[in-house]
Specification:
2 copies of one chain form a homodimer. The first copy, chain A, is an alpha+beta fold and about 170 residues long. In chain A, helix 1 packs across helix 2, helix 2 crosses helix 3 and helix 3 crosses helix 4. In chain A, about 50% of the residues lie in helices and about 20% in strands. Chain A has a 3-stranded antiparallel β-sheet. In chain A, strands 5-4-6 form a 3-stranded mixed β-sheet. The N terminus of chain A is likely disordered. Chains A and B meet through helix 4, strand 4, helix 5, strand 6 and helix 7 of A and helix 4, strand 4, helix 5, strand 6 and helix 7 of B. Strand 6 of chain A pairs antiparallel with strand 6 of chain B, so a sheet runs across the interface. The structure holds a DNA duplex (25 and 25 nucleotides).
Chain lengths: ~170, ~170
Amino acid sequence: MHTLTGPAKRRALLEELASRHVRLTAQRRLLLGIIQEAERHLDAAALLAAAQAHDPRVNRATVYRTLALLKKLALIDELDLMHLEGEKHFYEAKRQSDHMHLACFRCGKILEYSSPTFERLKAEIAERSHFAISVTRLEIGGLCADCRAAGRDAAATKGGDGLKEQRANARAGL
Amino acid sequence: MHTLTGPAKRRALLEELASRHVRLTAQRRLLLGIIQEAERHLDAAALLAAAQAHDPRVNRATVYRTLALLKKLALIDELDLMHLEGEKHFYEAKRQSDHMHLACFRCGKILEYSSPTFERLKAEIAERSHFAISVTRLEIGGLCADCRAAGRDAAATKGGDGLKEQRANARAGL
DNA sequence: CTGATTGCAAAGAATTTGCACTGCT
DNA sequence: AGCAGTGCAAATTCTTTGCAATCAG
């Protein structure tokens, strides 16, 4: 997961934009680079912060506009990650094969998973519903292996309360 | 799709809440009923409007709090429907088997689709990643059968621009 | 009774927009 | 040169919260 090839990948994105005759401003180069080198899923605020570390003049609006552009050009995917921590969106550069995201409600960890079965499912859907698929988003919420074990232990004593669980409880007024 | 059994289903939800010792206020009964009888996916605003049609005193906050409660109790699923029209969430009563949502970027139509392949995929994920799945959300964006055809026609003349496409274009400043 | 639930209105988080200015190509 | 892109700050959209009043069990 997050197998980054570094410069190679980065150039690919830049070239992709250039070949599509998209203007390459300093801001876009910077943002593209950050998105591609990212070791974790970035939200708009994190991307903005990272960009401003290099050049404080990069503006929030530019970040949102650039993300919208890249999404429209199908170069990045937008994720909700099960709204584990608020309603913000996360972004990642598109890769060869789609993958799904497993979000742990307890520790907040995000696991990635890809499978031929998913590809088969998509093909099946396309064929049977005559739908031309352009984006897929498969997000799964639950407990990761570690937290399943930890949860069993904690349940014996106090009753484990994780990230998402806390938020949900608060909202439901529990 | 949207095969509603009416009263039967409604009672089921009420009883489910009662059996869990959840207080059944007039507001909750009303909201539950609306959610279960709904013929389409409801967002918080639509749910509020529908509720207020019966009783104008139902408050926005109560709607959000009730949705949070039902989500926490795993009685409803929250959907993003590919953010086709803003960032609001949609809700639907949970059913026996999970299904995915196909969102048409052009006409905004939402199709539902369920498949044993999806069930197999979930089983595979659970087994291989040792993840305890509690919620899944599979959303697919693209063009529905009708719009694929319409798009081909329109492309010949003006170049079809649909709901989501318009918003995306606007955001990307195109 | 008594704590859970509600209404209200104000606050909050995330994102978008209008407009004047800047900078690619 | 000329239009796409940007910064800025205000506006929007959707959702949450604090607190006093109300209600279910």
